[in-house]
Design a protein that fits this description.
heterodimer; A: about 450 residues; mainly alpha; ABC transporter involved in vitamin B12 uptake, BtuC; 2 domains; two-stranded antiparallel sheet; two-stranded antiparallel ribbon; 16 helices; 6 strands; B: about 300 residues; 11 helices; globular
């Protein structure tokens, strides 16, 4: 290792590294790419070889390494040698200006989003864009903001958040089906029930910290899912609950009948009205979540959450009741998950335990962490990237024209989701929004680097 | 009584497999303080590697003595799984060392999702089953028309687990590598100052963890004869439960925890309800962490300011 970074390109070393990488890739991919186990017609397992594919994988990996050594690494070394500019570049300033106007602009865009989609795509194509992208992303934005209270503010890593989402969804589905209660009555009730479960599950784990807390909440999430699967008389097990009543427009149902929404307002019937209505409901719910969180941060309880995240022992020394503080964080987070869950059940009309797997919890945690833990805008951006990205991968049909008809892009959705999680963590471990607004400032409000903030010490 | 003894035998077998996976969790947690969430999926990958190796040996090369074939499969699977886990550590965890605490955990969750989906795409989503092997059983006792049996493969699992555990326990207790590992566990900076190559030690820890997971994977394939891409998650969580129950960071604790979890699971299935056996295992995890956070054989965690 020389003291100054070497900007000269060392071809021999690059080639040697590429050869080692190729060997490693060969070892990695030989068993599972080189060979394929398939069932033949007699239902016995036979082995097929795919050495061509294996060679492609190895070649791509080695060439990637070679390109890195010969092109990217020298470029980086040169950039590191260049002195830092004294003034922030124009691009930086522009980004900062955009950043300041981002929140009002973003909210404005989200409010008029259905109108934009309608004018571009017409009534036919708009349902997909509002439903798959708009509503789906907004649900995760709301869940992300709800979990942000627990993880981002109170610093308690909860890997079983989806349990409360499930409680909300099943509360709505069961109560609406069996007792005929309406969406607007059940929405607050599901939130309260989920909050109750939040306290119930929060109580035993109060003494745990960090990773242990994460694993116990994960276990709770799995326990609730397994109970939903196995308690067949109530939940109908794997088959789930279908025919969940859909929400109405203050008593007016969205159907083609004479009392339906379209007939009452003298419009032609399309399923689009319900979609747009649902979009605005979830938008309102998400904004309420954001508003409540922002207000709570200024209340004693919000201050206590953030103090708890920074240092639990100091909190106790200062006389903060850590038990109540943690329980309120769990309850508030769970309540918003309950709202989102009952909305989810009402939107789908069908729920089953399949919707509440650990993968969902992991997705929501990933959104919060990618968003920078504690930053509301960051969480929203992360939800758009993560959920929008995986939704887009559902319809990449043009890839079929490149790779042939047998190529199914949906298969690769979760593969790239997992890979993306790893890569984003390696690239930006602090998430998209790395700076923090302290809730209390002595002289002037300023953003600080998240490196100065501890979290997840629970 | 007969049912009880039979479940005891089955439970110890299952527990040996959990124990082997649990060691991977406990070693990695001990040295870098991270729950390696992808470890369950590394185990699943090792089962697939063992499956491919077994099929090459038996149906292509025609290695007739099944014991010899299994021994080769075991070694092949250990080697290739080690390569996989070494690469994972290098790519997904090492760049995050010294970063804030949640980053490696999220990275590990991402890696876990990636591995299971990679196997799904590469090998197909269907269950892979092979014909059962080593089916002969020894009848230990019989009564009330019920034979208590122990099969050769169960004995093979017990023996392999015992031998490999002894080897690796000696490795950690007696060799300089083990000393380096224990030093890194206590204080990485100090160990580095004293000339321990911390990065290399951590890499070797991941390699050992993967090798033991591969042993568990080969045993799993031999015992159940069926595997799918989804089989990493639940055994992974249960093995983690075992590691926590035994006291995370303690090797004998991991094995003890594994045996207990295996026994609890089989006994619960036999006497209560097979549907809720996973719930029972998870409840054990919750109860242990709440009432005995340091585990059965772990050192109590001192709270420092």
């Amino acid at each position: 290792m020389s003291a100054a970074p070497n900007t000269r390109i060392d071809v021999a070393r690059a080639l040697r590294d590429a050869a080692w990488t190729a060997l490693l890739a060969f070892g990695l991919f030989l068993p599972l790419i080189g060979f394929l186990t398939v069932q033949n017609l007699n239902n016995t397992l036979i082995l097929e070889t795919r050495f061509g594919l294996l060679a492609t994988f190895v070649a791509i990996t080695a060439l990637g390494r070679l390109a890195y050594e010969l092109v990217i690494a020298p470029m980086r070394a040169r950039a590191a040698l260049r002195p830092a500019p004294a003034k922030p570049s124009r691009l930086r300033l522009l980004m900062a200006m955009l950043g300041r106007g981002f929140t009002p602009f973003g909210i404005g865009f989200i409010v008029v989003y259905p109108v934009i989609v309608l004018t571009i795509n017409g009534t036919g194509g708009a349902v997909k864009w509002i439903d798959n992208f708009g509503i789906q992303i907004m649900i995760y934005v709301m869940l992300g903001w709800g979990l942000n209270i627990v993880v981002g503010l109170a610093g308690l890593l909860d890997l079983g958040y989806v349990a409360f989402y499930a409680v909300g969804a099943y509360s709505y589905a069961l109560l609406a089906k069996n007792f005929g209660l309406t969406f607007w009555m059940l929405l607050p009730l599901s939130g309260i029930l989920a909050a109750f479960w939040g306290i119930l599950l929060g109580f035993p784990v109060l003494r745990l910290r960090g990773d242990y807390l994460a694993i116990v909440t994960l276990a709770f999430g799995e326990i609730i899912r397994l109970v939903l699967i196995n308690w067949v008389p109530v939940t109908n097990g794997y088959a789930g609950i279908s025919g969940v009543p859909r929400p109405t427009f203050f008593g007016i149902p969205f159907n083609a009948s004479d009392e339906g929404f379209a007939a009452v307002f003298g419009l032609e019937f399309t399923p689009l009205y319900r979609t747009i209505f649902l979009y605005y409901v979830i938008l309102a719910l998400a904004l309420v979540t954001a508003f409540v969180t922002l207000r709570l941060r200024r209340l004693p309880v919000g201050r206590a959450w953030e103090a708890l995240r920074e240092d639990e022992i100091a909190c106790r020394a200062l006389g903060i009741n850590t038990t109540n503080t943690k329980l309120t964080a769990f309850a508030m987070g769970a309540m918003f998950a309950g709202f989102a869950g009952s909305f989810f059940a009402a939107r789908q009309g069908f729920i089953s335990p399949e919707s509440f797997t650990f993968l969902e919890s992991a997705t929501i945690v990933a959104i919060v962490v990618l968003g920078g833990m504690g930053s509301m805008v960051g969480v929203a951006v992360a939800a758009i990237v993560v959920i929008g990205g995986t939704e887009i991968m559902r319809d990449l049909d043009f890839l079929k024209q490149i790779f042939g008809d047998t190529f199914d892009p949906t298969q690769y959705r979760m593969l790239f989701f997992g890979l993306g999680m790893v890569l984003i963590m390696v690239w930006r471990p602090r998430g998209f929004v790395e700076t923090r607004q302290p809730s209390v400032a002595l002289k002037e409000r300023m953003a600080i680097s998240a490196d100065l903030v501890k979290e997840g010490r629970g | 009584m007969e049912v009880f003894v039979q479940q005891l035998i089955n439970g110890i077998t299952l527990g040996s497999i959990y124990g082997l996976i649990a060691i991977g969790y406990t070693m990695v947690y001990g040295i870098i303080g991270m729950v390696n969430f992808a470890h369950g999926d590394v185990f699943m990958v090792s089962v697939f590697i063992a499956l491919v190796a077994l099929m090459i040996l038996t149906s292509w090369l025609g290695v007739a003595p099944i014991a010899l074939a299994l021994l080769i499969v075991l070694i092949v699977s250990m080697v290739f799984t080690s390569i996989v886990n070494w690469t994972i550590e290098r790519v997904a965890y090492r760049p995050l060392r010294g970063s804030f605490r949640l980053a490696p955990l999220i990275s590990a969750i991402g890696m876990s999702i990636f591995l299971s989906n990679f196997v799904q795409v590469a090998q197909g989503p269907r269950n892979k089953s092979i014909p059962p092997m080593l089916n002969d059983v020894i009848v230990l006792m019989s009564g009330n028309g019920y034979d208590v049996t122990v099969s050769y493969k169960q004995i093979a699992i017990w023996l392999t687990t015992a031998v490999l555990l002894t080897v690796f326990a000696l490795l950690v207790a007696r060799t300089s590598l083990g000393r380096a590992q224990r030093a890194c566990e206590q204080d990485q900076k100090m160990a580095a100052l004293l000339g321990v190559d911390v990065d290399r030690t951590i890499s070797i820890t991941f390699v050992i963890a993967a090798a033991l997971a591969a042993v568990a994977g080969t045993m799993y394939l031999m015992y159940y004869g069926v595997v799918s891409f989804y089989d990493g998650f639940v055994p992974g969580i249960k093995a983690f439960t075992a590691a926590v129950l035994g006291g995370i960071g303690s090797l004998p604790g991991a094995v003890l925890g594994g045996l207990l979890i295996g026994l609890i699971e089989t006994m619960w299935s036999a006497y209560f309800s097979i549907d809720y056996k996973d719930v029972a295992a998870f409840c054990v995890l919750v109860i242990t962490l709440i009432f005995l956070p340091q585990g059965l054989l772990g050192r109590p965690d001192v709270e420092k300011v």
